[in-house]
Design goal:
There is one protein chain. The chain is built from three helices and five strands; from the N terminus they run ααβββββα. It has a three-stranded antiparallel beta sheet with strand order 1-2-5. A two-stranded antiparallel ribbon has the order 3-4. Strand 3 and strand 4 form a beta hairpin. The longest helix is centred in the N-terminal third of the chain and has 20 residues. The protein is elongated.
């Protein structure tokens, strides 16, 4: 499902305009992104949680050339599904 399909489905389910749903979705994504940039965890009870995970620097290999490279440490966003979401998918 693409973003536009998601917006249409939510608009139909909630009885809202697609424009209102699109603005809400964009706002939600912005709030989650800004919170993660600050290092905060975002929890939506029953759905899941987003948090920032740190990955240590490590050695790697360029698959094209076979040359050894140093992969720098980085932070990555992680989503952990909540119990209700897990049970509904099962």
């Amino acid at each position: 499902m693409k973003k536009q399909d998601f917006i249409k489905a939510v608009a139909a389910k909630a009885g809202l305009s697609q424009d209102a749903v699109a603005k809400s979705l964009t706002g939600m994504i912005d709030v989650i992104t800004k919170s993660l940039k600050k290092g905060e965890e975002v929890n939506v009870t029953g759905f899941g949680a987003w948090k920032v995970s740190s990955r240590a620097a490590r050695n790697g290999v360029n698959p094209k050339t076979g040359a050894k490279i140093q992969i720098p440490a980085m932070k990555t966003p992680v989503f952990r599904a909540g119990k209700t979401l897990k049970e509904s998918v099962r």
